[in-house]
Amino acid sequence: MSSPLCSLLLALGLVLAGTLNPNDPNTCSFWESFTITTKESHSRPFSRPPSETCEKPWESPHTCSQPTVVYRTVYRQVVKTDHRKRLQCCPGFYESGGACFPRCAQECVHGRCVAPNQCQCVETWRGDDCSSACAPGVWGPQCDKPCSCGNSSSCDPKSGACSCPPGLQPPHCLQPCSPGRYGPACQYSCQCHGAPCDPQTGACFCPPERTGPRCVMGRAHQWGHRHRTTQAYMGL
After folding, report:
1. What is the DSSP string of 189-229?
2. Which pLDDT score is estimated for 90?
3. Cα separation of 85 and 31, whole Å?
4. Separation CA 201–CA 211 (nearest Å)
5. Closest Cα to residue 148, out of 170, 132, 179?
6. Of the candidates 144, 132, 142, 140, the residue with the CA atom closest to the CA atom of residue 160
7. pLDDT at position 46, please?
8. For residues 87 and 96, what is the distance between their CA atoms, to the nearest angstrom?
9. Distance separating alpha carbons of residues 105 and 114, to the nearest angstrom
10. How does it sit in the membrane (predicted)?
11. Which of 87, 97, 103, 137 is the most exposed place for a label (fewest CB within 10 A)?
12. Helix (H) or strand (E) holding 78
């Protein structure tokens, strides 16, 4: 049987069984504790009386047979705690028919939920819940208020709030991110150890004396490391 067909049958079986597919990127795992009752065997000592009776133990006690200790296997019930891996939908997703789907707090009126609390609107509809028919650049109940967003940024068709692209700061997307900030609405801090970063991507602009993705390594240190590596390779 071909591999694609096996995968298809496996996925179909998981859906019919109502269990989650561990290969689904929206499926998360967790450890669950549970108790089990088992029968456990162990040895217990017993005293076995002598087979012959001692008629006059007071006359010759050392000649009388003594009881012997024997061990027998007995059973007892034991409650043990164990752990097993279980699957559940990741936060922001819900289970339906053995699969995990994104959950949107509000209904996507003219669209569909494609990520947690994120609607994908059909053409000509806009807004967080795809309920506004305003064209780009205007907002309001009558779609008669122009967006006051610079750099060709869009605005929310209900509130008029600007959606600033990465590198521009709210509220009107007119100014670039302040030094040390980057990303959508300048919400992230640069991770460059004091060096500036690209306001859109966060890529570090290292000074001449430093290098690396976060400007941590000094160039002299990097040259020394390469020099030592070359010497070791050449056997010097």
Report:
1. E--STTS-B-TTT--B---TTEESTTS-EEHHHHHHHHHHH
2. 94
3. 5
4. 18
5. 170
6. 140
7. 86
8. 13
9. 12
10. Single-pass membrane protein
11. 97
12. strand 68-89
The whole-number pLDDT of residue 52 equals: 73
Amino acid at 132: S
β-pair partners for 197: 204
The C-alpha angle with vertex 225 and arms to 222 and 229, in degrees rounded to 5, equals 140
Query: If you search the block for the tokens 């929206």, which residue do you land on?
Result: 26
CATH numbers and ranges of domains, the chain: 21-48+71-92 (no CATH), 104-163 (2.170.300.10), 164-219 (2.170.300.10)
CB 106 within 8 A of CB 129: yes
Give the chain's length.
236
Q: Which of 196, 195, 194, 173 is nearest to 184 (CA)?
A: 173
User: 175: which strand partners?
Assistant: 169
Half-sphere exposure of 226 (CA within 13 A, CB side): 7
Q: How far is 87 from 64, CA to CA, in rounded Å?
A: 69
Question: Residue 121 and residue 127: Cα distance in Å, rounded?
Answer: 8
C-alpha span between 95 and 107 (Å, rounded): 17
